[in-house]
Specification:
Blueprint: H1 2-16, H2 22-111
Length: 112
């Protein structure tokens, strides 16, 4: 009923003359505030939707990047273990070859 009362008051005011009563002015201002509030709300909803979409997209990208990085870390750890084992094996082979060289050098000195 309140909604129908405001336009009825405005029509009565227009019929009586071109003067705007203080009540009509308040009603006009409140209607203007309502329209402005609805516009701002819509603008904020659009802005929030865009921001939420950005956050969702970024979240998916970051999760994928983290998964890929974790897989690469696992691969690199495996490579490090492999190369550490290879280095230890090569160190043992070098020690064996150094021993052989020492024996051959001793044999050569003994022979001469």
């Amino acid at each position: 009923m309140k909604f129908f009362g405001a336009p009825a008051l405005m029509l009565c005011g227009l019929a009586a003359g071109s003067e705007v009563t203080p009540v009509q002015k308040v009603v006009q201002l409140m209607e203007g505030m309502l329209a402005k509030g609805k516009e701002e709300k819509h603008g904020e909803q659009v802005q929030f939707a865009a921001y939420k979409q950005f956050c969702d997209d970024t979240s998916v990208e970051k999760k994928r990047a983290i998964e890929e990085a974790n897989e690469k870390i696992d691969m690199l750890k495996a490579d490090i273990e492999k190369y550490t084992a290879t280095a230890a094996k090569m160190g043992q082979e070098i020690a064996a070859h150094d021993e052989d060289i020492s024996v051959w050098t001793g044999d050569q000195k003994a022979a001469t």
